[in-house]
Structures are given as structure tokens and as C-alpha cells.
Amino acid sequence: MDWTAAAVGATPGLLALAWNMVSWERSGPVVEVTAVNELPVFGDDVGEDWFIGVVANNKGRSPITVEGFGFRTPEGGHIVTMRPPAWSDPLLHRLEPGASATFRSPSNEIRQVASERGLALHKLRPFVRLAGDRYVFAKQMPIE
């Protein structure tokens, strides 16, 4: 009987503790990264070159600044684009809660660098670098 009363009394407290932990985790910026293939279309003109879009989505409750993006090699090196297209979101980019931004890189340039270094394209990991030198990675590289 005493254990039942203790369990019933402790349950709301444990639930409140769990809710506070979840709320605290989501109180700051929570950035998710995906990567997509893109073919630009400007009016009636379809582009000839494919791009890889690295998409950062802030699902948290605080803003964060995206300072860079690129592709991590299996050895831990980085491939970065020094000349993203004009229609790519600019860096340093303030990513507000609920907002997303896409940073683009010419697909042929990434393929060329990977080929020159003997790297398999599907083993590269797209990433964004956030303020505070924190990296967030996409799960996989898009393959066209």
C-alpha cells in the first residue's frame, strides 16, 4: 500500500522532470542539416550545371550564426567552396528559430576535387559550421 502511494506521488514529479529536460534541450538552437541536388531554373531558362545544396534548418528556440559550409572527407579534411553562386544564402548567416538557409556548391567542382584525391563522392559528409566552431553534418551526400 505504501509503495502504491509513493509511485502515484512520484509519477507527476518524474513527468515534470522529463518535460523540463526536453524543454531545456530545445531552448537553444537545434540545427539539422540535409543535402540536396539542385538544378537552377531562371524563368524559362534551365541551368546546365547541377549544384549541391547544404540546407541548415534551425528547429530550436534561439538563433545561431552559420559561419561556413563544406564537405568532410573520410580522413577528416574539408572541401569548401570559395565561390558559391550569387543565389546561395550568404555567409555569415543568422539562422533564426524556425528558419532555414541553403548554401550551394557547384556539383562538378566537388566531383573534380573528390576524383583528384581518389575519394568516393558518397563518402563525403556535407556540413555547416556554426558559431563557436561547432559542426553539424548531414546524414549522407546526395547522389545525382
Outline the secondary-structure elements.
Layout: H1 2-25, E1 31-38, E2 41-42, E3 45-46, E4 51-58, E5 64-72, E6 78-79, E7 93-95, E8 100-106, H2 107-116, E9 125-130, E10 134-137
Antiparallel strand pairs: 1-4, 2-3, 4-8, 5-6, 5-7, 5-9, 9-10
Radius of gyration: 21 Å
Fraction in beta strands: 35-45%
Tally of alpha and pi helices? 2
* Uncertain stretches: none
Compressed to H and E, one letter per element, the order equals HEEEEEEEEHEE
Tertiary shape: elongated
Structural class by helix and strand composition: alpha+beta
- Give the overall average pLDDT: 86
How many individual β-strands? 10
Describe the structure.
By secondary structure, this protein is an alpha+beta fold. Helix content is 24%, strand content 35%. Strands 5, 6, 7, 9 and 10 form a 5-stranded antiparallel sheet that branches. The longest helix has 24 residues, at 2-25. The radius of gyration is 21 Å and the shape is elongated.
Short description:
The protein has two helices and ten strands, in the order αββββββββαββ. The protein has 144 residues and is α+β, with helices and mostly antiparallel strands.
List keywords for this structure.
single chain; 144 residues; alpha+beta; five-stranded antiparallel sheet; three-stranded antiparallel sheet; 2 helices; 10 strands; 24% helix
